[in-house]
Amino acid sequence: MNQPLRPVSTVDALADALRARVLSGEISPGTPLPEQEIAAAYGVARPTVREALAVLVHEGLLKRERNRSAYVPEVTISDLNDLMYVRRPLEDLMAQALSGRRVTAAQEALDRMAELPADAPWAAVVAEHMALHQALIEAVGSPRLVRLYSALAAETRLGLVRLRRVYEDRDVLVSEHRALLDAIAAGPEAAARKVVAEHLSHSWGADEQVSHQHH
């Protein structure tokens, strides 16, 4: 027998709203999120705000230090380079394991990304982008690979916030990921590994170039 659905709590609703703002880049890195101001802005009690912020701190999307308001951590170019340094071998394991296979869940995430309206918040793009890459990793069938990859998820998501400047044309992002999934499905292994490595270098390298232009 099915369990009755639990209504979304105020804490969950507030966490969802704040998460969308963080992942769309609306709340910039370093910006403090005082409990009192959030409580007033959303018309909720401070304990609700405290719990919602705790959810995002647990996810790694916010940081909280003693006697200081929660804030969005800065993901620097150096952080991104190190993130890629660790992600590359994990993605390479994925490419080796999946070459010649098409992963339905990844394809579905790509289709959802393609169907997002032009004015969809960047957070929605980030969600489908993460779902696509997560589906590929999960398809390998290694619980430890999933665990290692998940440990990097928060920084990857925050890194993707920076990429909104690179991919202002959503169609480019969709076509790049379509090419990625096609290359993995087509194989052979060496070709799949090459395309996966180039995909990582291209996306994050493009962000570095844009960041240098902004400074």
Notes on the structure:
It is a single chain. The chain is an all-alpha fold. 70% of the residues lie in helices and 2% in strands. The chain has helices at residues 10-23, 35-42, 46-59, 77-98, 104-115, 122-139, 143-151, 153-162, 170-186, 189-214, and strands at residues 32-33, 70-71. A two-stranded antiparallel ribbon has the order 1-2. Helix 1 packs across helix 6 (122-139), helix 5 (104-115) packs antiparallel against helix 6 (122-139) and helix 9 runs antiparallel to helix 10 (189-214). The N and C termini lie far apart (58 Å).
Keywords:
215 residues, two-stranded antiparallel sheet, Arc Repressor Mutant, subunit A, 2 domains, 10 helices, elongated, mainly alpha, Four Helix Bundle (Hemerythrin (Met), subunit A)
Topology:
Elements: H1 10-23, E1 32-33, H2 35-42, H3 46-59, E2 70-71, H4 77-98, H5 104-115, H6 122-139, H7 143-151, H8 153-162, H9 170-186, H10 189-214
Antiparallel strand pairs: 1-2
CATH architecture of the largest domain: Up-down Bundle
Major beta sheet, specifics? 2 strands, antiparallel
Q: How many strands appear in the DSSP assignment?
A: 2
Radius of gyration: 19 Å
Structural class, judged by helices and strands?
mainly alpha
Q: Mind telling me the CATH superfamily name of the largest domain?
A: GntR ligand-binding domain-like
Mean pLDDT value:
90
Topology as a string of helices (H) and strands (E): HEHHEHHHHHHH
The portion of residues assigned to helices is 55-70%
Q: Into how many domains do the coordinates divide?
A: 2
CATH C-level class of the largest domain is Mainly Alpha
Looking at the structure, the CATH topology of the largest domain is: Four Helix Bundle (Hemerythrin (Met), subunit A)
- Count helical runs: 10
| Distance N to C terminus | 58 Å
Global morphology: elongated
Strand order across the largest sheet: 1-2
Strand fraction equals under 5%
Poorly predicted runs: none
